[in-house]
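chain below, 107 aa
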Amino acid sequence: VAHGDWPAQHGGIMNEGGETSFELIQKGKATTVCLSDHGKPIATRGATGTLQVTRAGKETRHDIKAVANGNCLAASGAVMTLRAGDTALARVEQADGSVVIGRFAVR
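prediction:
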C-alpha cells in the first residue's frame, strides 16, 4: 500500500505518495498544510517551510510556519486561491532539521 493515501482529516486534498502524509487545505484564501504518519498527527512545533504553487507554468512561493501546538503549517499573509490544474509542493523543515516534502495535484 502506498504511503500518503490516508483520508483527509480537514476537508483538504492528500499528497501523492511519500513517507509522510500531507493534507493541503484551502478555506477562502487561507492555505494550511497538515502532516501525519499513518493517520497519526506529526507535531510541527518550530517547523518552517515553503509552499510552491505552479499554474500554467508560472511558479509562486509562499512561506509556511507552524501553527501553535498542532500538526499544521499556515501560509502567513499569502493570498492565493488554488484551482483545478494547479500543482503544489510543500517543503517542511522540522525543528530537528529533518525535511519532508509533499506533492499535490489540484483537481
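The mean pLDDT is 88. Strands lie at 13-14, 21-27, 30-37, 40-41, 48-55, 58-66, 72-75, 87-93, 99-105.
thats it, cya
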